[in-house]
């Protein structure tokens, strides 16, 4: 072989080797772009709060399609926005969950536990809840201070400033110490004290408030309220009502709140003063004993009565009246009657008056054993109205007159329980008394509501009356 050709081939091979070598090196160091996975970052500003406080939730997602928050126990309860502020109004432990769906259809979930704390447990005076049935001394309200155990208008104890020895040193409730009685005094509207009791069994209890007032206008009503153990929110259980001057601020009488439902275990109740000039000595609590049935006969009532002769209710529309049974805002139970002046829609238009008769199931009925007509009435239309009993021997009535209220009736939109003696139900409104006419008393057929001729009006809505609890009694 020619040596020149051999050298030439070697040169060609060397060039090919170097070309291949450097070509492979370039391929190995070529830059590669990797796939970024979708992801989410989420946070809660706090996970341990008090009820009524808020938590700020934030999230940042990469390559997401949807973002959905759900907030158990929170307000709002859900959100599709990445950020949300949520208020928790009730104590408890709740889940806040974020679900993110990505563009590759994968799903990621983030979970937060939110602990919502309630109020601190009450601290009974002396360290032990008061056992009932028993007596609570007004001055022994709970420990804890202003806004927790009590609320008083001023920081100072006004009783001490006016010469009373000091009973407690921990706060400013106006506790007054006398020779024989220690009581709360110098009360103002909106002041309150809390007491924690132990109830032995779920049931109905009666509260006897021992109160006094030396003011000429008397004392103001005291509200009894139940305090929610988690939130501190107070719910009304009843109130004593205002009371007259008792003779002095040291002369005490009883004002009662009865029929209070309490649950077994610890309960915290609040005494809320609605006005001034009311001293409170103590509260006696006992198990409620239901009263015996009323000695009478029920016509339209859900009260516990010995016997009954139901009226046919509702009475048929007629005499310019439309009568319906209502089931809310009754005087007692679940039903009352609403008498509405409706000359065009009542089915039996009349001229110059409006009336409606309720027939008795047993008619005529012998009411010789009874002496009183009981009826609950509510109205805010101050028009005269006749309350009437129809008998085989004529019609007997009284006229309720806004200009001269009687039997406890007021036209204030509130229920009033009227007790009308048979001796004042007069034939045709001015004749013989029902109590003196044996033939009438033994033959009662209907209970009737009627407008009075002297006060009749054709104006719409001029005569609206609610009637409930119609019955006869001996006493």
UniProtKB/TrEMBL annotation:
One of its GO terms (molecular function) is carbohydrate binding. This is PKD domain-containing protein. InterPro entries: CBM6 (IPR005084), Cellulose-bd_IV (IPR006584), Galactose-bd-like_sf (IPR008979), Ig-like_fold (IPR013783), PKD_dom (IPR000601), PKD_dom_sf (IPR035986). Gene3D superfamilies: Galactose-binding domain-like (2.60.120.260), Galactose-binding lectin (2.60.120.430), Immunoglobulins (2.60.40.10). Residues 134-286 form the CBM6 domain. Keywords: Signal. SUPFAM superfamilies: Galactose-binding domain-like, PKD domain. Residues 68-100 form the PKD domain. It comes from Epilithonimonas zeae. Signal peptide: none annotated.
């Amino acid at each position: 072989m020619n040596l020149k050709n051999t050298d030439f081939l070697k040169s060609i091979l060397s060039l090919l080797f170097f070309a291949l070598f450097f070509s492979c090196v370039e391929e190995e160091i070529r830059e590669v772009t990797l796939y970024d996975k979708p992801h989410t970052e989420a946070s809660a500003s706090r996970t341990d709060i008090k009820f009524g406080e808020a938590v700020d939730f934030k999230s940042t997602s990469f390559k997401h399609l949807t973002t959905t928050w759900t907030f158990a126990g929170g307000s709002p309860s859900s959100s599709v926005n990445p950020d949300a502020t949520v208020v928790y109004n009730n104590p408890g432990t709740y889940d806040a969950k974020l679900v993110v769906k990505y563009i590759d259809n994968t799903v990621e979930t983030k979970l937060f536990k939110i602990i919502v704390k309630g109020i601190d447990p009450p601290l009974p005076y002396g360290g032990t809840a008061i056992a009932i049935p028993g007596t609570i001394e007004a001055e022994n309200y709970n420990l804890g201070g202003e806004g927790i155990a009590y609320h008083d208008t001023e920081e100072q104890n006004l009783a001490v400033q006016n010469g009373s020895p000091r009973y407690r040193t921990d706060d400013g409730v106006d506790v007054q110490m006398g020779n024989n009685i220690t009581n709360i005094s110098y009360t103002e509207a909106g002041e309150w004290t809390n007491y924690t009791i132990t109830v032995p069994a779920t049931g109905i209890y009666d509260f006897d408030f021992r109160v006094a007032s030396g003011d000429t206008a008397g004392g103001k009503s005291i509200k009894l309220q139940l305090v929610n153990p988690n939130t501190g929110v107070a719910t009304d259980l009843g109130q004593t009502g205002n009371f007259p001057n008792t003779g002095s601020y040291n002369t005490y009488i009883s004002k009662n709140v009865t029929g209070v439902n309490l649950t077994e275990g610890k309960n915290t109740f609040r005494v809320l003063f609605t006005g001034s000039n009311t001293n409170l000595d103590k509260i006696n609590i006992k198990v409620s004993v239901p009263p015996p049935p009323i000695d009478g006969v029920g016509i339209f009532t859900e009260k516990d009565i010995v016997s009954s002769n139901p009226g046919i209710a509702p009475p048929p529309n007629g005499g310019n009246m439309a009568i319906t049974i209502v089931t809310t805002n009754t005087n007692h139970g679940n039903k009352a009657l609403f008498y509405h002046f409706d000359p065009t829609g009542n089915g039996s238009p009349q001229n110059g008056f409006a009336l409606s008769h309720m027939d008795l199931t047993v008619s005529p009925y012998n009411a010789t054993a009874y002496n009183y007509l009981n009826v609950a009435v509510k109205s805010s239309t101050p028009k005269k109205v006749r309350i009437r009993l129809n008998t085989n021997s004529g019609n007997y009535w009284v006229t309720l007159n806004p200009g001269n209220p009687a039997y406890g009736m007021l036209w204030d939109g509130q229920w009033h329980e009227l007790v009308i003696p048979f001796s004042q139900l007069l034939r045709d409104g001015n004749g013989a008394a029902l109590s003196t006419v044996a033939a009438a008393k033994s033959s009662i057929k209907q209970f009737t509501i009627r407008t009075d001729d002297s006060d009749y009006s054709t104006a719409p809505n001029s005569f609206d009356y609610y009637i409930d609890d119609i019955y006869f009694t001996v006493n």
